[in-house]
Amino acid sequence: MQRTILHADINNFYASVECLYRPELREKPVAVTGDVEARHGIILAKNNLAKATGVKTGEAIWQAKQKCPELLCLPPDFRKYLRFSKLARAIYEEYTDQIEPFGIDEAWLDVTGSVHLFGDGREIADTIRQRLRDELGITGSVGVSFNKIFAKLGSDMKKPDATTIITRDNFQQLVWPLPVGELLYVGRSTQQKLRNRAIFTIGDLAKRDIPSLRLLLGVWGETLWHFANGLDVAPVRRSGEESIIISIGNSTTAPRDLINNEDVKLIFYVLAESVAARLRQHGVKCKTVAIYVRNTELFSFERQGALRNPSSLSSEIVSKAMELFVSHYSWDKPIRSIGVRGANLVTADQHVQLELFEEDNTKVEALEKMMDGIRKRFGHYSIQRCVMLQDRHLTGFNPKEDHVIHPVSFFK
Amino acid sequence: MRKTFLTITAKHDPNGMIYPLTINWTDGQVYAVDRIIDVRQAVSLKCGGQGLRYTCRIEGKEMYLFYDEGKWFIEA
Fold first, then answer.
1. Which residue of A lies nearest to B46 if distances are taken between CA atoms?
2. CATH number at residue A187
3. For residue A362, what is the domain's CATH number?
4. Other Cβ atoms within 10 Å of B21 Cβ, number
5. Pair (A262, A391) in one structural domain
6. What's residue A141's pLDDT?
């Protein structure tokens, strides 16, 4: 059966919401930016006037100001954005229960079952756009197609406030001439690899034979070929359907550059506590610890190592992370950002092999659980490791709750 | 046009709906809401804001009363 899938993408989400609340800014170039003091000073979103001057999402504020000196930079208000995201979702829910959010401002809707109630895909898309405009004062682009990949491409084609329809009959004219980088999951390096094989457009990719793509990109090649030919069959997840967790991690850009092992250890402690607490919250332990390091030149790498026993203890995660770090980093440059991830997860309720000559870990486990309880009742900063007091500036953040918006992946 | 936040008296029914009964103007005057004509989510483009919009008839005049997360305002 032919599916009808919508991909709704709210235009310039953060900036639109800010402009909505401050009408005096509507005719000026506006950008929502991170905190410069904490060195998160990049453009998170911009309105159309700022876009017209060439300001791009993700670039530093000073770069944007060079292109557009009169750019107004506003601090983000994530609570407000979450509220609007929920309101938009409430609108979508009137048309289908199969809604899969992709970040805070995008969502796929499978309306196959509701077309006989509300009209065809275009009609539903237009109604949703109209309602976003009237009820929330923001505009959205909607792509309508028979699979998720083309629906997403459609929502990117015409902006702002437009509906794009991609059908089985017209996708070769509409989608195939687009540059291959437009396709979901073709990033900079994949694009480069494809370009080396004279694959420039999505059409070029679709016309290649699978074996040669598999040779070039592995299993990825095949997946991308399916994407390009409109053969993606991934379902739109139902509201509330949980995805399986593959790994749990946290990373951060430190408020100042990290210059020695002590600094790194401090940040690792903050991150590992959040990772460990989340592992325990989900009732899992990790068998592998991975670290991510990025230096001031923006060169980054990831390394991982196995733990002796599965663990959800911050102390064990930190010692493994430090071990990995010390053996893989030579300090030729200071470090800008750093991350810790627990992977290879197993359920926590299995038997534990106690150490014969070392301390009993179950006591530490009980201790950390108790800390979770105290923090839940009295707040994150009510109990802390002494080591955190060495540098309040560096450790004064809570990765578990400070970030309310997380990046998501298509392959959950 | 300015966003003016007001004190109101309201009736909360068992379903969670809120019906404004009177609005207290900034100068102390109290106006009764004669009728609520329409209630819907809407945006106030004139003075910036979004919320549940009550279209009310007050002293023979139709006007919008917005309910935004616990606060009431009008476009004045």
1. A23
2. 1.10.150.20
3. 3.30.1490.100
4. 11
5. yes
6. 94
